[in-house]
Queue: 3 jobs
Job 1
Amino acid sequence: MRSFPGLGAPHPKRTHGSRRPLRYVSPVRTAFFAGSFALVAIAAAAWPSEARANGRFPESNAIFFSQNDPNAVLLRTTFGLIDSRDRGKTWDWVCERSVGLAGVEDPMYSITPDGTIVSSTFQGLAVSHDRACNWAYIGGELKDLVFIDVASRPATPGTVVAFASSYDGQDDAGAIFFKSTLFETKDEGKTFTALGPGLDRTLLGETVDVTPSDPDRVYVSAVRNPGTQASAFLLTSKDHGKTFVENKIALIEPERAAFIAAVDPLNADRLYVRTANAIDMPSRLLVSDDAGKTFRTVFTGKGSLAGFALSKDGTKVWVGGPIDGIRQASTTDFAFVQKSTIEVQCLAFADDGLWACSTEKSGFVVGLSKDEGATFETKMHFCDIRGPLDCPAGSTTHTECTLGGTTSMASPPWPQQRAMLGCGGGDVDAGMIDSGLGDGAATPAAPDEMEGGGGCSVRAPSSATPFAALLAGIGAAIALVRRRRR
């Protein structure tokens, strides 16, 4: 495995359609159950060979493009990362075990000019310098932090901002605090530095975005009192994250959070925000023209707005969801019209058209529209996935996704995963195989845990104290609320 200079990580480019607001789980309620969660996690570590299901139905939910390689496409699914190196003609699987995901989470991905991929995970910032064959966590001050988002500017794709936010204790009165920090790499993940001193401890971070037209503008969305009295906020920095101005985003019951969808490519003061609910109910698309000081509602969906896309010149916008289909509008009047009734899990705009994640009910899992969302050509069915990504022996992807791990009882996971996708072949044990990663799965090695040569070590279960494990459990559980992906 390639060594990591310094204690940095990689990055790339995110797409407008990849952050999706899903069902929002109250972190306050989660905190009450965190003790049980941690105990379960400790027990799981004692039986690392058992692959417990994450319980989600297989689906695609985000698409990521490279700013420098027109053939590179990454598809996020509930059972791992799907990689295409020929613009969607062929697809290969990278299992959750290789990336190092911990159960139910939807990480953000970014691709730097040299092909490095960075992933925001609940276990830390995971990075691959060889196009998804080997993955490792970033060490140093980033080690073991809960990362929830990554962002980069089209003009500087080698620079990436990574957002960490997690539980950080509570006071005698029961107030819950959080630790939220922005980190930045300017050298494609070789080194990372913190931007500013960190956010207000009463804020739980949600999303981060940088502006294409202003290198010093940074936006963050966050929530205060993230329970039944949740209040959403937009934090604006005009000095590259050193200081922030806080403005409230008015929520409507039962909304519990607001997620940044995109920033206008030409106007740094205009940004788009989507709201999320505690249950599957209507969510809204909001627009601000004054850097987050005020917002107005431009669309209210019948259900969750899982997809969002903005044209590269900022003149057209698309929203979509499982109930609403695809709606399009000009950004001059936001008069939305129905373009399609397909079930939408994500949207992303690129040079070749509008990409969408959907279900086989719509005729495709990934589709491309060249008429602005009216019709789609199929780019992928789940059964089109060829199998595990072809990687060298000893790499994390070959070890975990092709061989099934390093234990004597390991078996190739792809035949069973393929059977679960309804593609035939393999015996399915619902208690053992899921859409991806078991609780006892191996995780990427930190830089100081890597072996020389082409191999890569795997981090063993932590020997942390029960109290430390409890805190980690609380942090991971609270982080589950951010399955909102762009």
Note: The chain has six helices and 28 strands.
Job 2
Amino acid sequence: MEHIPVLLKETIEGLKIQKDGIYVDFTLGRGGHSSKILTLLKNGVGHLYCFDQDEQALKESKDKLLAISPSFTLIHDNFVNMQARLAEYGVKSIDGGLFDLGVSSAQFDDGARGFSYRYDAVLDMRMDKRQTLTAEMIVNTYSLKDLAKIFKEYGEEDYAYIIAREIVKRREEKHISTTFELVEIIKNALPNKVLQKKGHPAKKVFQALRIEVNDELNVLKRALKQACLLLNDNGRIAVITFHSLEDRIVKSIFKELSDVGEGSRRLPVEKKNVEYHLVNKKVITSSEEELLINNRAHSAKLRIIERRKSYER
């Protein structure tokens, strides 16, 4: 299935790509957004740097990008290490950057990666296979209290404690190794009224485990602030989120940095001498046309921030 990048038009317009600029796609994935950015850069003048923890994503995107232009560099690393890794290429500031925080559909479709509750596989969920922590380790070693905490905080699961208790009970009988084993445990813990609802009963727990394995929310907080500090005057950072936990973090950090103060909803206070401002004070969502052709777009939200011209720094 062809990968359709979410909010592509709105993101590219929001970044205001300059043909001689330095841009970073912090979440390359299958190269949908990067491909468009690269078409707008002048070969040999502008340059695009692309981060991804997933080695397979880098391999699959390389030829796609080469068909457009050689003016890009692939970096196999977590975007939280952006400053050090970009410095290796002499890059100390950028004209724009993009975070597309959705998990790649290719990762979900690869049953062996253990991200999906729809395929039977080893409980893995690592974005970067070089790291040691896996979902299997978490499920079999975390305390009841810690399991319940991550299911509640990262999955917003109402039955977090009950599910965690069932996991602890079952792992005393047998090591939990696979996604389907975990799905069966979750279903066994939940009441019938929940099992009969629309949506998969394991969705929230699997989301929570993925976030914990990859430390996604803490990494996002650190990386987003770094990216904003890297911006040149008039440079922009665009962030696409897919669930409320991420969006709250982005909204909070952008608000903290920007000229939107703590006034009333109708009359926000303008803070003086701030370096950043929000390009869109109202979150951008997908058009009706996009929703018809791209199911992943339903939960997508886009926020963009710009660094203002010349404050002393």
Note: The mean pLDDT is 91.
Job 3
Amino acid sequence: MSRLASAELQAPASGWRERWLSMLDRWLSSPGLYRWSLGNPIGRLIMRRRAAQLFSLMAGFVHSQVLLACVRLGWFEALLSEPRSLTQLQQMAHLPPDSVQRLLGSAISLGLIEQRGQRYGLGPLGVPVAAHAGLRAMIEHNALLNSDLVDPLQLLSRPESSGMHAYWPYPTGDAADARPIADGVDAVATPPISQAQTFSQSTQGAPQISRYSELMARSQRFLIEELLAAYDFTQHRRVLDVGGGQGGWVIALAQRVTHLQLHLFDLPGVAALARQRVAEAGLTQRISCTGGSFRSDALPEGADLITLLRVAHDHADEAVLELLTRIHQALPAGGQLLLAEPMAEPEGKPCASDAYFHFYLLAMGRGRLRTAGELSQLMRRAGFGAIRSIPNPVPLHGSLLLARKD
């Protein structure tokens, strides 16, 4: 049951608080209050602030398209190397001068680009876009979600018809238990990731897996750096990463903590890609890769820590509970699970990023955004105890939960 449905069942049908809030809504929306606010300094301040917030919501789709246009023109990388003149930016764009000036003015207003005399450089929000190829890749990828959201009610009523759903093809069989093409930590803030689909033997499989894996590999650095900064991995001896994708996480961990032995588990098509990357990194003596499915295969044993990075929110509760149970079975007594993924804020603490993940996961398929409390409850049902939150410098990319097998 969703958090909203649960809260509705628990709330009384009526009461003084509900009546008071309804009366307050009518009062705040009255034309008379608006007219009064225009002549009152405090009222003007409040109204101005709320008007700006509402306009930002209304114009948000334009802002995202300005960002996408600048990415596609290559402006961020160009301005990172050196400031450019208007003429140089026009030559890069191959667009009419008036159109370039409109786009440039829009980018400046959003803090993506700034004017420096007769030249233009990166704005404060343009710097991270220029510095991270993975972020630019996800901005490009979000164009799919933008297309699905042209008619949000259509997406809500028939999510299986979304372009995002088609982009991550699901295997045949039980769609509720299926997982998209690839897995792991390799996404930014964003986007959900999971095990690769076992159709790599077909003529279509390799390009599809490669397409997804390349996108994820280019955008994996954010969460990797956050994990390495937030948790002390030196206390462990062997780590198993379930749904490890191309192996970006285990390779980075092996390079940072040199005594660790590591094991990656993912479906066969992606495990093969990971094995190749491990060999290229010269880490075959310390990292092993196993192909399999957590729905039908036992997880490799021997690790004292298992990492599960941005996998759970791809799935319904039943599938997540099954995965957590298999992880619990694979761990020795005292072994730990470190789970990292975007998490919804608890009731009463709204966060703007929740809206993005709610709709992204809907367009993807069967997953959903959960609170830390909901994930902790699933962990307890799987047999884990001593569940606690690990502070993360930038929880937008993934909040962290640590659990122990008693």
Note: The chain has two domains: 34-131, 213-404.
